[in-house]
Design goal:
single chain; mainly alpha; 69% helix
Length: 255
């Protein structure tokens, strides 16, 4: 009887647990997770993956530190060099020389490390530039795709036949406007003149002798033959008003 009672109680507890899990699945899952964390510990959150910018910043920081160390060693070398220039040859000078050589070896080592770090930084900068260029190219391609899409959408609203008809209408209107302007520019109350009479009068104008009004035959002009100097005689300015002809030119009398 005792075994049957315990078996029945276990079945009731299991039924109650299953009923609670079905009614509140989230609470049950949280309780199980809490139990697992208590037994095995909670997993630490993963750190974000380093970016290329972070790596470049670290490399630049290391390069700056190495440059400061090299600068400090240069100061020590200058100090030893100045000290050796004031010493005579002997054990003391050799000791200072050994110290200077050790500092020089350290400087060479730091310079090698600095060269490697600078090369790494340069390579990362090139990679960063390439990535940025690819991103910019992708943006450009996307913009071009959007532009082509908009152009196709706009082209669907245009009809080439309607545009040609519009151009023809515009040409006709301009031609009509030219005709209207020509009509408006006509002269009124103009006397009727025979074309033959106009031609005869024009030919008569060609036969007129205009040289008779200004006869320059027989004129002599005394121009200086050499350079003009202070002794060169210049014709005196005529006194009084100068007579002019009908064309407004001074009258010239033949000698």
């Amino acid at each position: 009887e005792r075994q049957e009672t315990e078996k029945r109680r276990g079945e009731e507890a299991l039924y109650t647990h299953n009923s609670t899990a079905q009614a509140h699945p989230g609470a049950s899952a949280d309780k199980q997770q809490t139990t697992m964390d208590r037994l095995f510990g909670r997993a630490k959150p993963q750190a974000p993956a380093p970016t290329l910018t972070d790596a470049m910043s670290n490399a630049d920081s290391r390069a700056g530190s190495l440059e400061k160390k090299i600068q400090k060693l240069d100061q020590e070398l200058a100090k030893y060099k100045d000290q050796m220039s004031k010493m005579r040859d002997g054990p003391s000078k050799n000791m200072v020389k050994q110290r200077a050589l050790r500092v020089l070896k350290q400087k060479k080592a730091y310079e090698g490390q600095l060269g490697n770090v600078q090369q790494q930084s340069f390579n990362m900068e090139q990679a960063h530039f390439a990535i940025s260029s690819l991103k910019d190219t992708q943006v450009t391609v996307d913009a071009m795709k959007a532009g082509v899409k908009d152009m196709r959408k706009q082209m669907k609203t245009m009809d080439i036949n309607k545009i040609e008809d519009l151009q023809d209408d515009m040409a006709d209107l301009l031609e009509d406007n030219d005709e209207i302007q020509e009509v408006l520019s006509r002269s009124y109350a103009t006397p009727d003149v025979d074309e033959a009479d106009l031609d005869a009068e024009f030919d008569a104008l060609g036969d007129m002798n205009f040289d008779s009004e200004l006869d320059l035959t027989g004129m002599t002009v005394n121009a200086p033959t050499g350079p003009i100097t202070s002794s060169t005689s210049v014709p005196a300015k005529p006194a009084g008003p100068v007579a002019v002809d009908e064309f407004g030119l001074p009258q010239v009398h033949a000698s």
